[in-house]
Amino acid sequence: MSTDYGRAIAFGVFPSPNADADSLRRTWEVVGAAERGGLDFAGFQDHPYQRRHLDTWGLMATALARTERLRVFPDVANLPLRPPAVMAKNAASLDVLSGGRFELGLGAGAFWEAIEAMGGERRTPREAADSLLEAMEVIRLMWSEQRLVRFEGEHYRLAGVKPGPAPAHDMGIWLGVAGPRLLGEVGRRADGWVASHAYVGPDRLPQAHARIDAGAAEAGRDPASVRRVYNLWGTITGHGVQGDPGEPLHGPVEAWVEAITGFVLEHGMDTFVLGPAEDSAAQVDLFAAEVAPAVREAVRAARG
């Protein structure tokens, strides 16, 4: 059964956060190509324990300062190593400083040994899920216009703190989750869902959407109000250049257009973030100039 929520289609890039000079040069080339090519987003992974990675929040701030229209988000923020009240202030500050170009992708955590080695708390799956839901409440309280806010949870608390600043726009919270309970919570209370093609393939999307949609229905929300972001990795080989016939994300422009159009019309996704092969700006140029417009046109034609 096909699923299309009718949302506007968006495209973005997933630049490298590596700190060495050559990687950083390619990162700015990718960001520049996305800005120049009219793409919508740049998403940055957040693994503070990775010694080769720059700090994601410093990198995102610099990306916003180097661009004028590109929107930026953590893909996704590492909650166990980042207190949610402080993260809320960081996110709102970047949104204000950029004129409303920041969104907040949020994850419950993974790689617990590395998190623990950096001073974070090792959490069970239930504890990680509970803390994520508490963090969403804390963050939204910190963005509120209340004079003082309080929250008493198992993992986080606010004891009469003065919230602010507020974001410059109605900032979304997008959850990078895959378990059935948290997928339901995406529908109940989040603004978006972030998934990666490498881990959540098209065969797993119908079940995930069903859980999100059920959660939305229980909360009286329209399932189409939830943005559905798909991180994609592969190689665009160019028109008519033979790639891997069994893997459309390692092939020519035509194969990418067909695959992404299917992800929209049959598999319910609406926002596509490219991790370009070899961090190549040329791959982003192809994605922006040839893949994205063709997908938009194919989706427009199919929807009538």
Brief overview, please?
The protein is α/β, with parallel strands linked by helices.
Descriptive notes:
The chain is an alpha/beta fold. The protein has helices spanning 21-36, 56-66, 84-97, 112-117, 125-142, 180-189, 205-218, 253-265, 281-303; strands spanning 10-13, 41-44, 71-74, 77-78, 104-107, 149-152, 157-161, 173-175, 192-196, 227-236, 250-251, 271-276. Strands 1, 2, 3, 4, 5, 8, 9, 10, 11 and 12 form a ten-stranded parallel beta sheet that branches. The longest helix is centred in the C-terminal third of the chain and has 23 residues, at 281-303. It starts with 9 loop residues before the first strand and ends with a helix.
What value does the Rg take, in angstroms?
19 Å
Query: From N to C, what is the helix and strand string?
Result: EHEHEEHEHHEEEHEHEEHEH
List how many beta strands DSSP finds: 12
Individual helix count? 9
End-to-end separation in angstroms reads 19 Å
Proportion of helical residues: 40-55%
**What structural category do the secondary elements indicate?**
alpha/beta
Strand content: 15-25%
Whole-number mean pLDDT: 96
Overall outline? globular
The stretches of 5 or more residues where confidence is low (pLDDT under 50) are none
Largest sheet: 10 strands, parallel
